[in-house]
Design a protein that fits this description.
single chain, alpha+beta, 24% helix, 3-stranded antiparallel beta sheet
Length: 127
């Protein structure tokens, strides 16, 4: 897919307690051809059998805090991979770094970390 999160990634965010009902895009597919998913706008008329809301890169970035303490959200492309980290621009101290070949995956991993560490507020999980 590349430009949106997979169904598995969206399910994981939901398991972490994030309300994922605000996705702007949708993955759609037919029962007879479930390997051939298409990405459509959430409001589009559809002829597909199944659909699942999903997040774009911008949706995920919008959910990340700009700052954690004095560290600022920083996204960099280094050689053939992307790095997402929180770094203090003056002291160069940093907390948590995620890295992936795809930018959306590095940012997704950071969102998961932020949720797991209480930096992104989520619904209370039922125990």
């Amino acid at each position: 897919m590349g430009q949106v999160l997979s169904i598995e990634q969206m399910k994981h965010l939901k398991e972490l307690g994030l309300d994922t009902s605000d996705g702007n895009m949708c993955l759609e597919w037919n029962e007879s051809d479930s390997d051939n998913m298409v990405v459509t706008s959430m409001n589009a008329d559809t002829n597909y059998d199944y659909y699942h809301g999903t997040y774009t890169l911008q949706d995920i970035i919008n959910k990340l805090p700009c700052f954690i303490g004095d560290e600022v959200l920083t996204i960099q492309k280094l050689a053939d991979s992307y790095t997402c980290l929180y770094m203090n621009p003056y002291t160069r101290s940093m907390i948590n770094i995620t890295e992936s070949k795809e930018l959306i995956d590095a940012v997704y991993d950071m969102l998961c970390w932020c949720i797991e560490n209480g930096y992104v507020k989520v619904e209370e999980k039922l125990r």
